[in-house]
Amino acid sequence: MNTINEEEFDYQNFMKEGSIDHSKINTGPMAHQNRRKSAKNKITIRIDEEIIEQFKKIASEERGYQSLINLALREWLTAQSVKELLREELPEMLNKAVSTIQSTALPSEGLER
Description:
Elements: H1 11-17, H2 29-37, H3 49-58, H4 65-104
Helix pairs in contact: 3-4
C-alpha cells in the first residue's frame, strides 16, 4: 500500500487490518547466517557496451539490468549442468533402451526379406 500520496492515512487502522506476523520474522544467529549465504558479492567485471544496452532495454522498474544479467548467468549455468548430465547419462540410457527393445522384439527367423 502506497502511503506517501494519501492525505488522510490512518496508521492505526492500517496496522489493525494488516498486522505483522511475528512468526515470519527471521531473527537470531541462524537468520544472520542465512542472509549471508544468500548475499550477493560486489565485483568488477568488463562487459561489452552492446550487451549492457540490451539488458537495460529489457529491464523493468521491478528488476534492474544487473539482476537480469545475474539471472541470465544463472540460467546459462543451469543449462550447462543439464548438458553435462545428458552427456554422462544419455549413452547408458540409450544402451538400456536398445537392450530392452532387443529382448522384447519378436524373433525374425520366420520372416522373409
